[in-house]
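hey can u check if this looks right to u? its 677 residues, i copy pasted from the old doc so theres a chance i mangled smth
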Amino acid sequence: MKKIIFLFAFFCIGVIQAQDYLGVINSFFNENRSQYGLSAQDVSDIHIYNQHFSQSTSVDHVYSLQRYQGIEVFNAIANFAIKNNSVVHVENQFIVQLSQKANTTSPSLTPVQAIQKAAVHLGLSTPTGLQLIETVTNHKFIYNNGNISQENINVKLVFQPNEEFTAMRLAWDLDIYLKDGSHWYSVRIDAANGQLLSTHDWSTNCNYDLPGDSVHNHTAPNTSEFQSILFSKSSSKTPNDGSQYRVFAMPNESPNHGTHELVAEPANAIASPFGWHDTNGVVGPEFTVTRGNNVRARADLAGNNGGSSAEGGASLNFDFPFNFNQQPVGYVNGATTNLFYWNNIIHDVFYLYGFDEVSGNFQETNYTGLGLGNDSVNADAQDGSGLNNATFSTPPEGNRPRMQMFLWSANGPPGEPLTINNGPLAGDYQGIGSTFGAPLPTTPLTANLALAIDDNAGTSTDPYDACDNITNAAALNGRIVVMRRGTCEFGFKVLAAENAGAIAVIVVNNVAGAPIVMVPGAVGGSVTIPSLMINQADGEALITALINGQTISATIEDAGPYQIDGTLDNGIITHEYGHGISIRLTGGAFNSGCLQNAEQMGEGWSDYFGLILTMKEGDTPEQKRGIGTFAVGQPIDGNGIRPAPYSTSFSINNFTYGATNNPGLSLPHGIGFVWST
């Protein structure tokens, strides 16, 4: 408790010194507004929505919004750096001649109608059971999720400027976190006619970008040796809690960059004074699983934002083996532990460098009493809702962000996990296992095949796709069940076969080409048997033979190649977490909409963070550093997922600022790559 009091007093020094921010800002505009083209009326109603004191620079960072008639102008922000009651720097996005640009101050649509309109524009189902939870102000309300969002829906009245800033429409600003977790939309709905005016996505992703851009010749700059920053600002350790984690520890970027090791009590005393499993500020863990004040890490195999955390027991011993000669689900506890470790390490390192409680970091309980808290990271390991990607969703302060780490495709062509043991179709067949249910077995699973037949009672017209009621359940018991892909969710049809007694499922693709990875959908989390997809040509031959009454014995055995677990690519983990850092610090902790333009630097900062936390003693600037080499199955000197690896050597990376004019660069990742270069 003494430590908490000390920390609180220490961090409050800056708050006590920061006197009358609004008075300082008003004085600044009284003297300088003409250089921004602003009138006295334009700056007559300024709302300060966030501020924090920087220990490293002794500067107060103040974030303000422009208002008209008491209504906020969306993203009309002015950020001030204030020192000794004087403005030392300002970034201004206030709009000139406000009174001439606003269409009205009275909405025609209610907040509920705005939510309904947003659902239509986003292609969602009609909201049901919408209820007002809280009236925050006359212009701001909180509704329940209406069965269209994972979180409550915040709605407030704003003015939305057009792209030319020549006019403003009164609008309802609201956020909807899609139930599948793929997007967290921030939407502006016209308060007069219900039109969609603007949409931002608080979720960022790390989709694979194909490299390949032109080469230029330049002279390389002087080089100097990088220095490790691990915890250079503090070597303090937390109280002895006995915790230990088998992980690919910082600064190892991935399993290709170093071996897994058992790390003991790695929490930092300043950033995490009660360890990584505390939430109440009293010595002793509240959780014995991969959950604590900074992050809750779970294996979301079903892709429904649920799943289980890894259990360390009373001794907090998270020592799980890694065996890569199997699908990633076989070492899921170790992967979840690695994700927990890295989220905490990133939290602790950046806490020491200014991303602390008062500036809007991610913690369940803010031990200093500053900031809101209640926003530790929900981190999903081996998330079953996607593939070849990673995402980070950053809502405003006081709302929990979500990190989703997915599996990545195995190297090379699909393996041959299916063997037909008899008859004219005997042989080995390519196939790809699903991301839900049991993994494909590593010891042979042999049984006769059976074709699922349904009654076509729903919208499907194919009796062999198991999208409707299965009519031959008795014939499926104890069999490996075959079915077509169809139009229903994979998890639904596999679960239906399992409920009929199937021990495994083979799904036949309904289009030509290679099989795809099957994801769980709404009910796939309940599946406990293995399933795989094979291509259309091979599968149709099996279906025809079964229809003709042939008895076919089959064996399923997974001998690789195996998918790659993005949860172990620590550079990508840091990259994703970095989005949360840059978003919270750019517009202030309560604004998540300031990094939406194509040339924003967020992607570049995230790559930079990933490179910093995975530097090793002896690394040099010229050294080749690719992003995501492990996830895409490349060696450590591979190019990774950017147009070129990072290096100060122009023979390796020849990009300069001029490359931002290259239309071949993707947005925003390609532009972010140039910034980071």
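The two ends are 45 Å apart (CA to CA).
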